[in-house]
Amino acid sequence: METDAVRKSGSYGIYIKTGLSRGGFVRNVSIRDVEIIGTTKQAIAIDGFYGMVNEWCPDSTKRNPSVVDNISIANVVVRNANNSLHLHGPPELPATRVRLQNVSFGCDGSVGCWAVPKWTRACCLSAECGGGVDFTAQDITPASVLDGCHPSGGHT
Known about the structure:
There is one protein chain. The protein is globular, with a radius of gyration of 16 Å. The two termini are 25 Å apart. It has one domain. With 156 residues, it is mostly beta strands. The strands form two sheets. A five-stranded parallel β-sheet has the order 1-3-5-7-9, with no helix packed on it. The chain is 0% helix and 47% strand.
């Protein structure tokens, strides 16, 4: 559990990363009451495609995705992030029971945005949702951040 934290000027604010060939699990994670300021990549990311094949694993070419389950991210304020939200996981073993609640995104124009076709002097109030993450979203502001994403329980 991470709580009552301020994360400034890093690549990521909250980053849960797993690979396709390592197996294992990330379960029962609760992150709340966090302020994220000025990320150069994503403010909040769950990425099931991280990293390269681990040659030390017995059969490093075999797909063995990690189990990601019961992740709660609540009461988060994000300011000046390069990209707001990144949710990608393997479709054969999607992340499950991921909950985003009371998360707000904002910017003052002091951060450049790499996620749009033409680089601009504004943060990205948008999400990259590539599937493989079964999530619900409640009280996300602005709600337009989730345009193009499809939370399993809808969003309010």
